[in-house]
Request: fold
Amino acid sequence: MKWTHLVLIAAAALGDASLAHAAKSNSNGSEEIMRGDYVAAEALIDRQRKLFAWDGDLTLNLAIVYRRTNRPEAARALYQRMLQLPDEEIEIGNTVTTMHAMARRELAKMAPTPLAKLR
Reply:
C-alpha cells in the first residue's frame, strides 16, 4: 500500500482534515475513520490485514480506531509494533515525518499522567 493512505489518517490523527484529498482509494479504512464510523473502519482494516498483516498504514489506522474506541492498551501495542516495522517517510501537508516518529508521538500522548500532576 502507498503512504498516501497514511497521510490521510495521519492528518486526521493530527487534526488536519484538509488533507483528506491525499488518499486515492479507500482500502485501509481512512474514509470510515474520517466519518467517525469506527465499526466499519475496523471491519475493513481487519479484512485487509488478512492479506497485508503488518502493513504500516493499516496498523496505524487500526491503532487510531482502537484509541478512538477506548481500547488504549490495544492501540499502544500496535504503535509499539509499528516501531519494529521498517521506517518509512510520510508527508503530512508540507511536513515530512516518518512512521516511527508518528508512532512515538502517539505513544507519548498516551503516556500515563504522573500522580503529582493530577493533584
User: Anything to note?
Assistant: The chain has seven helices and two strands. The CA atoms of residues 60 and 79 lie 7 Å apart. The helical segments are 3-13, 30-35, 38-51, 56-68, 72-82, 99-109, 115-118. The beta strands are 89-92, 95-98.
